[in-house]
Amino acid sequence: MNAPMAANDLNLMKFGIGQPVPRQEDPTLLRGEGRYTDDMNLPNQAWCVMVRSQVAHGVIKGIDTAEAKTMPGVLGVWTGADLANYGPLKTLIPVPNRDGTPMKMPVRPSLATDKVRFVGDPVAFVVAETMAEAKDAAEAVVVDIDQLPAVTDAREATKPGAPVVFDDAPGNICVDYLYGDSAKVAEAFATAAHVTKLRLVSNRIVVCAMEPRSAVADYDAKTDRYTLRAGNQGAFGLKHQMADLLKIKPNQMRILTGNVGGSFGMKGSPYPEYAGLFHASKILGRPVKWTDDRSGAFLSDQHGRDHDFDAELALDKDGKFLAVRLIGFANVGGYLANVGPLMGSMGVTRNLAAIYRTPLIEVATKVAFTNTSPVGAYRGAGRPEANYFMERLIDTAAREMGIDKVEMRKRNHIKPEEMPFKTASGTTYDSGEFTTLLDKALKFADVAGFEARKAESKARGKLRGLGIGDYLEVTAPPMKEMGGIRFEPNGDVTIITGTLDYGQGHWSAFAQVLTEKLGIPFQKIKLIQGDSDLLIAGGGTGGSKSIMASGAAIVEASDQVIDKGKQIAGVVLEASAADIEFQLGRFTIVGTDRGIGIMELAERLRTGMKLPEGVPDTLDVNHVHEAAPSAFPNGAHVAEVEIDPDTGWVEVVKYTMVNDFGTVINPLLVEGQSHGGVVQGIGQALFEHVVYSEDGQILTGSFTDYALPRASDTPSFRMDYHSVPAKTNVLGAKGCGEAGCAGSLPSVMNAISDALGGKHINMPATPERVWEALHS
Q: How crowded is residue 537: how many other Cβ atoms within 10 Å of its Cβ?
């Protein structure tokens, strides 16, 4: 007869690793009780409104603030000259030129002082008693700008005679990037049996986070400390960047973050507004708050994507890949954003090999300044683009060579027995079963029944196409991460981490890891992540690395808790620490049933038990995980679309995915992350596109003109796993946050091409473009 399960056993079964536990954040958020930055209001708070350039390019001749300063409620009006003593906004990841010289990094002050370089470039700000008064005064500020010709397209920006964005960046080149051996690649193309060529454009995207950017700055003269309340992706990193911007010591800066309504990379760094807020707070002796509206967000938030490549794939007579080459342009906008030129250069390079045995890779990118909003990281930051480029080349090559598109992929898959596999991109894959996964996805998607579904669509006057996105992405590189565990006076246990949740659901996933490791009741676990004063390290959230970083930090911190607990339990149980073992939340003497639970032990410590010298007096741990190596999530997405040939309207009617995310901590959260990424990919593929006029005015500056996908534009998703645990982290996890985009961009666009009989169109596949392709 089986013994009854202990409470800890039941707790682990329900809330341990691998269980679909609902997000702990949801009840609060669904009741409307979330606390976002704009919900935060401090006593005696003033309000800030930015004055932005209404032209894309021009010389500032003067800024008249006289009338604004006299208006009701106005406390001050400041321009770039007033902020001259603060540091510039910096890019975090410099990319070298092909000759090894550093890229061009023009200084960006918080407010433009000489020229404006995009519509929305901030030139001044007003602070008043109320938001309405600040808005009225901002409209009274007169900015005299001598308008210059503008350029908005990266390819055009590099041509002779194009308007010059920065005088010290000839040809508007930020960086002339090259990866690969050009001579060997050229030889491979010269001897290839077949070469496929496509011009592939990754269209510019507005991030459209649910919560616009907002910040409250508060300078305390008594302590000489600065506190910024703002949505971000990591309080520890933002603390150091803000200290650098304000030219103060890091311990003078505190970042406080509540709920964050989405970011996708856009809120990962300081913005121009922040220095001005502190400048005003310091002068006025009171907190200053700024909240952007949606129109301002369209203009001033970092945009995403915007790459334009001539892509080529060289193959032998059997369809084996010999080399892939991308030569093209990446747009960084009017200034360098947080990660600057990373996406269209190193980001694309590291992911271009994907899951294929591609011997040679060349990526040559001219990263260009233009008179547009700065371009920053956006869900995947080069990874979805690279997979899109590769998968479109493969589908086109298969059609041109008369080889089945599935067979061509399988012929070039890296095999499990070849692991670890070093790619031509310089990465080394530790695990993956790519052919097995693809076969599982094709069966799961009922590809065998596609012809019948196609015939049924045809009977209704629709064209049906099927597309595959066989992807792999390289997650963000190693960073230090904190794993703090604190046993609270009320009996709760708090995890402290330097990652930051802006929609992912960290609380539940991290608690599951701790429950699995220490047997602590799930409901007792809390999470702190948005207070930089409590952090000793933190790589922030981005690059699909959070569970590898924070998860490993929690595991390692838990081991330290266990070591401390054995010493303390040895005193309680009157045994040597060497004779104490820990299992399922209990410390016991080896070979006996005498023991004490970890929560009871924590309670004993709270009541002040006496301990011998040298024995720890707390179970609390502040630990720093030194590195979380990149992982390689991969999968196969299969999309089916229907096209109305009379209108060109595209509808995604069936979508199936099988992913390898290694160890899945919480399938429910992973499914939600995957759905979100796929929808954003569908949005880019079919709807979203930032359009500028010739003089740099944004023509898609609101939801009236900029189309986002709605629930009615997506089918029900079918999702399954083929998990091969990673060998590079203690949990075996691979990350999942951005994989949906990496699989959906190629699968949807390949499906559209299939429905069009192999014709190629670039994203977004709007009805106009599709109709033209059908009738050209």
A: 21
Q: What is the dihedral of CA 417, 419, 422, 425, to 10 degrees?
A: 100
The stretch 177-185 carries a mean pLDDT of 98
CA separation for the pair 260, 612 (Å, rounded): 46
Rounded to whole angstroms, the Cα distance separating 242 from 234 reads 12
Please name the residues in contact with 415: beta carbons below 8 A apart, sequence gap of 6 or more: 435
In the chain, what percentage of residues exceed pLDDT 90? 96
| Residue-wise pLDDT tens digits, 564-613 | 999 999 999 999 999 999 999 999 999 999 999 999 999 999 988 899 99
pLDDT band at residue 3 under the 50/70/90 scheme: very low
pLDDT of residue 629: 86
The residue range of the domain holding 311 is 44-429
Q: If you search the block for the tokens 């003497």, which residue do you land on?
A: 589
- The owner of tokens 């400048």 is 279
CA distance 198 to 449: 30
pLDDT of residue 6: 52
Residues 384-426 have pLDDT tens digits of 999 999 999 999 999 999 999 999 999 999 999 999 999 999 9
Asked if residue 1 belongs to a domain, the reply is no
pLDDT one-digit tens code per residue, 186-208: 999 999 999 999 999 999 999 99
Residues 6+ apart with CB under 8 A from 528: 484, 494, 495, 496, 497, 534
Count of structural domains within the chain: 3
DSSP classification of residue 152: -
CB 574 within 8 A of CB 615: no
Residue 495 placed within a domain: yes
User: Band of the pLDDT at 452, cuts 50, 70, 90?
Assistant: very high
242 and 352 part of one domain? yes
Q: Are residues 523 and 667 in the same domain?
A: no
Q: How far is CA 724 from CA 36, 384, 550, 731, in A?
A: 38, 21, 20, 12
Residue 686 shares a structural domain with residue 771: yes
* pLDDT for 177 beyond 80: yes
- The pLDDT of residue 11 is 64
Q: 655: closest CA among 741, 718, 710?
A: 718
pLDDT in tens, 504-548: 999 999 999 999 999 999 999 999 999 999 999 999 999 999 999
The pLDDT value recorded for residue 9 is 62
CATH code, 502: 3.30.365.10
Do residues 397 and 502 share a domain?
no
**To 10 degrees, the CA torsion angle through 211, 217, 223, 224?**
130
Residues 489 and 393 in one domain: no
Confidence at residue 2, expressed as pLDDT on a 0 to 100 scale: 43
Neighbouring CB atoms inside 10 A of 431's CB total 21
Nearby residues of 326 by Cβ (< 8 Å), 6 or more positions away: 309, 310, 311, 312, 348, 352, 362, 363, 364, 365, 389
For residues 713 and 694, give the distance between their C-alpha atoms in angstroms, rounded to a whole number: 31
Are 471 and 484 found together in one domain?
Answer: no
Alpha helices in 336-478 (DSSP H): 348-352, 383-401, 405-412, 434-444, 450-459
Regarding whether 437 and 356 lie in a shared domain, the answer is no
Give the largest Cα separation in the chain, rounded. 89
Question: Quick one: which of 742, 730, 116 has its CA closest to 391?
Answer: 742
Residues 450, 536, single domain; the answer is: no
Q: Are strands 46-52 and 288-291 parallel, antiparallel or unpaired?
A: parallel
Tokens standing for residue 308 = 């334009």
